[in-house]
Amino acid sequence: MSDATGAPTLRGAAVGRRIGIGLMYGLWKPRVLGAWRVPAAGPVILAVNHSHNIDGPMLMGTAPRPVHFLIKKEAFVGPLDPFLHGIGQIEVDRTTVDRTAIGHALGVLADGGALGIFPEGTRGEGDFASLRAGLAYFAVRGGAPIVPVAVLGSTERRGRLIRGLPPLRSRVDVVFGDAFDASAGDGRRTRKALDEATLRIQGKLTAHLESAKRLTGR
């Protein structure tokens, strides 16, 4: 749910986490590895690869803390609009500099919450090959460590009812990596500093994804 200003609340995200747990464990078989690597308190950003439509809900249901995701405004249609706002998710307009969404995301971090981001922007190969600078901005500006997360689902088409979803009751691996600081430690927030941070982040996320694939045999 949102407060009087429209900002997402921890209570709403906690409700979303309970829904995610029921939905994900009811329809698939999540195997969660390394969840202990997520800091138990304080601001944190969970950076998730995005190759399945369930990546967001899967993380909401398997992360050890309630998560506020930045979600494209196109998803907020019909009954999903009040529902997504109600479970503490953040609507973002990707066609412009959405200052409201930026303010809400920074507010989550300022309050010591967990912010979920798909740094590739849209669902694709899920290989972190193309990162947007937004992740670096939130990490540096919000003073939050980044925890890389790899969601690895079945690539089989057999048993798949909906395109973009793993087959029902198939195993989905969620692998959390070690938290890291994206900044250079010099306090710079210039465009050059953010570009450099983005390159550092991409290296860390790609390395974690490859490690997760070796670990799970995906």
Automatic annotation (TrEMBL):
One MF annotation (Gene Ontology) recorded for this entry: 1-acylglycerol-3-phosphate O-acyltransferase activity
Record domain Phospholipid/glycerol acyltransferase: where: 44-154
Pfam families noted in UniProt: Acyltransferase (PF01553)
InterPro entries tied to this protein: Plipid/glycerol_acylTrfase
Key word Iron present: no
Domain of life of the organism encoding this protein: Bacteria
Keyword Ribosomal protein: no
Keywords: Acyltransferase, Transferase
GO terms of biological process kind: phosphatidic acid biosynthetic process
CC per GO annotation: plasma membrane
PANTHER family in the cross-refs: 1-ACYL-SN-GLYCEROL-3-PHOSPHATE ACYLTRANSFERASE
Protein name (database record): 1-acyl-sn-glycerol-3-phosphate acyltransferase
